[in-house]
Amino acid sequence: MNTRLRKLITAVALTAVFLPVFLSALTTLELATTAKPPVIDGKLDPGEWDGAYAMSEFKTFQPDYGKEPSQKTEAYFLYDADNLYFAFRCYDTEPSKIKATLAKRDDMYADDFVGIVVDTYNTMQNGYSFLVNPLGVQGDGIMTTDGNLTAEQDFVWDSKGRLDDQGYIVEYRVPLQSIRFPSGKTITIRLAYFRQIVRTSEMASAPPVYPDKSSFLAQTQPIAVTGWRFKRVVEILPAVTHSDRRAVDEGTMKREERATDVSLTAKVGLTTDLTLDAALNPDFSQVESDAGQVDINLRYALFYPEKRPFFLEGNEIFSVAGNTEDAPLYALLHTRTIIDPTYGFKLSGKIGAANSIAAIFARDNQPGADDEHPYFSVFRLKHALKDDSFIGGYYTARDVTGGFNRVIGADGRFRLSPISFADFHLFGSFSKAPDGGETAGGHALGLRYNQGTRNYYLDFGYQDISRNFQVDTGFLERTGLRRLAACGILMFYPKSKIIQRYDTFYWSYHLQDTTSNMFETFNMFCLRFFLPRSTQVRFEGMLANEVYEARRFGRSGYGFQFYSQLTKQVYLNLFYRNRGSIYYDPDDPYQGDSNQASAGLSFQPTDQLTFALDLVYRDFARRSDKVKIYDYTIVRSHNTFQINKYLFLRAIAEYNTYYKRWTADFLASFTYIPGTVVYAGYGSAFERIRWDGLEYVESERYMETKRGFFFKVSYLWRW
């Protein structure tokens, strides 16, 4: 997910809103179908939105709850048998300060924007979210039980935005073909509008939401609608990708691979609720490479987010309950473990209003082993209970010749009081290595209790993961532990124009390493300030240690974080942390100290042009003699020219000081709708080496060591 999306929506605003509570009692409205659909042109023509569900009583939920927003907003909703229609009139007393970027879809979360969330099943488990910035650029995703917005999903819908001297207007149309809903002549949905104003750090909603009344989805407006027509979704998505890769061999650039891949993906709506996807040689290529990360002296593997379209729709159902922050069992299904499948199937949706299901089956290709084809099988079921409670089941399997890994278990969430809930997971694994041996079993248990109001937040959890627990389909950092975690936050709202809110909080965990029977602890003390211009400042101190290879090492330290939309054109984020560290050599680990720093600067001179510069730094010095073992810096320049909302050009340059390597990537991207795309890209890598006739040696000059070109085109046929 986009980093700024997490900061601006999830971490700062929506997370605070979604403190769980009981269902609020809003009267269900009845709204008739419209006989004359509005024209989606960014204009509110007279009479066009007559009869709509209209709201103008917006109240803030960020930085505080229930306050009058600084700017007025009017929102409208209409529907007919085939589409949902939404419109916003966003007034602004200083329209020149509205932040709007002409960007690719899902790249507008740092802007001013408006949005809706619609829970088509009235279960308060999740809802479709559609957001639009003042220039009509789209963002979309699923709002989950916890109130997190997963923005990986891409739906097909239309939008138009227009700036004027009063602010801006947005209109959009969402085809019912693009979403799922229950069958029936009359159904009840839930709907809410919201708006973000960057320069004032405000987010406001209608109906208003409060942390002591209900979760966000439970406080949305119930509306009875009639006559929604089921039109079976049928999609065919062929794609062709051509690539040409070259690499240096004994000082000469030679072709490494030239390939043309043809893939076919199909989707069919079995019912209004259930969709089947199938893919042959699915196109799982990434258009852009992952941003560089520090990849040395790691105890755990790096986590890279999923970007491949086949896996993204419906992936919110695969999240696991019962985890506190930084829990070792990060995901039971991390689809990037499926590397290069030859075919795959996915079933997702609902059976009845209360039962959500998802299943994946795929045959993979094993890198470096042409005769080995792992098979992945995943099944997930969630049954909605009263309010936002649920109970769920999970099964995952990875089978190879002579071996397997299977995980089965359950998770759930239960409402305890208007401001508290408890959730859990319990999984068992059964594994056999391909080289023979007995089947090994393990378990993973997670328990969590959460309570929160406007003024405080509490979160407690316990994890027990046995040494033999294994999940080949997921992402698991560590086994052989028992871990007790706690978090407490106090929130204050001073009457100040500068400090909108400040928090003091304590987060900790206390862990028993069951392999060595030793204990470790982590304690973080933080002071956090929320300021205008979407600004956050955080100071932190840590008292901590860590057990590694049956030895205890110091991990205490201190840190600082800052991010802000300094001006309409300039965004800045800074991070620094100094703490004790470990050199993770299993044969000879030792104590050290490290500095970690990152910085990001984004400059937007026009609506269409964005320059971004990011820096990541990490070093390590042995504590016993202060000798620096390494320092590692990554500098990344990311520059985009958005010609229109469909077409952009991008140039990325990255330098890694540790490997003394430059990479340069160029991309032209055209996206008409999700699925109908054309990409063309070129990349090169340069290293400070030369060939001396026998081997590569260091050099003062750079040699081009890799070169690649790719072209991809796909077209979505939709009936």
Characteristics of this structure?
mainly beta, Immunoglobulin-like, 2 helices, 24-stranded antiparallel beta barrel, nine-stranded mixed β-sheet, about 725 residues, globular, 42 strands, about 5% helix, single chain
Describe this structure in words.
With 719 residues, the chain is an all-beta fold. Among the domains are: 3-226, Immunoglobulin-like (Sandwich), CATH 2.60.40; 303-481, no CATH class. It contains 2 helices and 42 strands.
% residues in beta strands:
over 45%
Number of helices: 2
CATH class of one domain: Mainly Beta
Over the alpha carbons, how many angstroms does the gyration radius reach?
A: 26 Å
Average pLDDT metric? 92
Helix content: under 10%
What is the name of the CATH topology of one domain? Immunoglobulin-like
What is the level-2 CATH architecture name of one domain?
Answer: Sandwich
Please give the alpha-carbon distance between the first and last residues: 30 Å
Uncertain spans: 1-24
Structural class label: mainly beta
Q: Can you count the beta strands?
A: 42
Globally, the shape reads globular
Q: Give the biggest beta sheet.
A: 24 strands, antiparallel, barrel
